[in-house]
Every structure is written in structure tokens, then in C-alpha cells.
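User: I'm putting together a teaching handout on how sequence relates to shape, and I'd like one worked example. Could you take ComF family protein from Peptacetobacter hiranonis, show the sequence you're using, and then write out its predicted structure as C-alpha cells right after it?

Assistant: Happy to. First the sequence, then the C-alpha cells directly below it.
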Amino acid sequence: MDFFFPQNITCLICQKPIDPNNTYSLCKDCFEEMTFIKEECHKCGKPVINRINFDKSDDEEDNLADEDIKEIEDNCIILTGNNELKDAVNLKIDDDEEYILEKFEEYREGYGKVEEKKIEYSRCKFCENKNFYFDRAISCIEYCDKSKVLVLSLKYYGNTYMSRYIAQVMRDKLEFEQLSADYIIPVPLHKKRMRIRGFNQAEKIASYISEYTNIPIIDCVKRNRNTKRLYALNKFQREKELKNAFEVKGGSEKIIGKRIILVDDIFTTGTTVNEISKKLKIYGVDEIIVLTFLTRNID
Ligand SMILES: [Zn+2]
Ligand SMILES: [Zn+2]
């Protein structure tokens, strides 16, 4: 619990005294400098600058061959029927996982097993060629000198009261997008980094979002390895660094067929949340919405 916080007394960013009713405990100047993301890419959530049209006409005629269906059934990875779901949990995850997921997606799309067909109608320049396993990523505010203060202050100065306001912004975004879910999962920290920092910022934020929305948190993703900081690495190095860094553990049967909100503070290249999403989809999660507080225009 965060018992002491300067709620509604001073601006969270510049410390100027403020009116107690100010939204998100910010002064007018700081609030106005924030760019709340209103028009974003429907996949990665980055602010749309150069929208391109995603032409899906090529795939639409595709149907799966019978052998493919048989292969999927043989592998017990049909995640749409209850009995098969149990097997899916026990599915051995190996190097074929990319292939399995691909086939599974084809299967669902080709045979309309999903109640609401998810349509990707546009992708931005950042993500048009990326293979994201989450269904959608949503960020609230553009990363800038002002907005980053909130996250840095939380993460590196231990001002855990920030998480309450960050969560308020994220809750409002969920409401705006009219989104709900069965569970919230915070992006885990490795225990070593957790020991140094003393808390996981994603967990702090997620617990407030859970309180505001009544969506329960489920703690079923574990970070196996303490990964290097990713920002200095290129795309290939990031993917390599994160491969098998996460594991789905106890409680995984609860997430089968469910919609999950995966919570983190910042969405940069999306490699971390993508790696977690991949694991969650293998364990039978139906839909993943990544919800982050900040994102950059370009990464
Ligand atoms: Zn201010
Ligand atoms: Zn995008």
C-alpha cells in the first residue's frame, strides 16, 4: 500500500501547487503538454502518422487443406473445444511453436471458430511487417520530456504513489475504448531486478487498474532470466535475448479461452510483450490486449 502520497496538492511533474480537482494531479501547463493518443494504429497503438492501408484481399480466399486440419488435431492444439483445451495446457513447447501458432490462427480464421472475427484493417509503418501475437496494443500518452517524468519517478526514484495516477489514465483509456477483460497480467520483473528496485512498477500499476475496473489480476507469467536492457540492442538481438525468458506457470488453466490485458509502463518496440503474448497464446488465451501508459512515436 502507498499510504503517503501528495494527492492533489502539487503537480506530479513540476511540483507546482495545484487545484485539488485537477485531473490526474497535474498542473494546467503540464497537462497541456501531454499528448493523449486519440488516433492510433489498430495493432501496435502507436500514434498514426503515416497510415498505410493493409490489404488483406490476398489472404481472404485461402482455406486450409485437410491435411493441415488433421495435423492440428493430431497435435491437440485446437483451443476452441473444451476437451482439447486440457491437452493444450500440456502441450510441449518446442521450436515448432511459431509453426503451431501460425496453423492455429489459420484454423480459426478459415473456419470461423472465433465468435467475433478480429479484423485488422490498418497497420502503421512501424508495425506493418511485424509479427505480433497480441491482438492489439494500446497506449495512453506519447513519450515526451514531461510524460516520461511520471514513469522515471516511479521506476527509478521509488515514488510508488505515481502508479495510482498512471493507472487512472490507463483506466480512462480502457473506458474510452470500451474494453474489458477476464484477467489482468502485469509484465513480470526478474527476481534479481525486483530485489534491487523493491517493487515491480507494472504490478503496482496493474493493481490500481484492477481496483478501478474490478478485473482480477492473475499471476501466471514468470520471468526466468534477467534479460539485458533491450534499448541498446537491435531487433535480432532483442528477440534472441528474450527467447524463452518467460514461462507460464501455476493457474494457467484459468486463462484458457480468456481475454487478457497485459499491463506495462512503456511500449517501445513491443518485443517483451510480444514474447509474453506468444507464450500466452500457446497456453490457450483467446485474446490479448496490451495496455501501456506511454509509447514513442517512432522506435
Ligand atoms: Zn506541472
Ligand atoms: Zn502499428
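A couple of points you could highlight for students: The radius of gyration is 20 Å. The pocket of zinc ion (ligand 1) is lined by residues 11, 13-14, 16, 26-27, 29-30 (CB under 6 Å).
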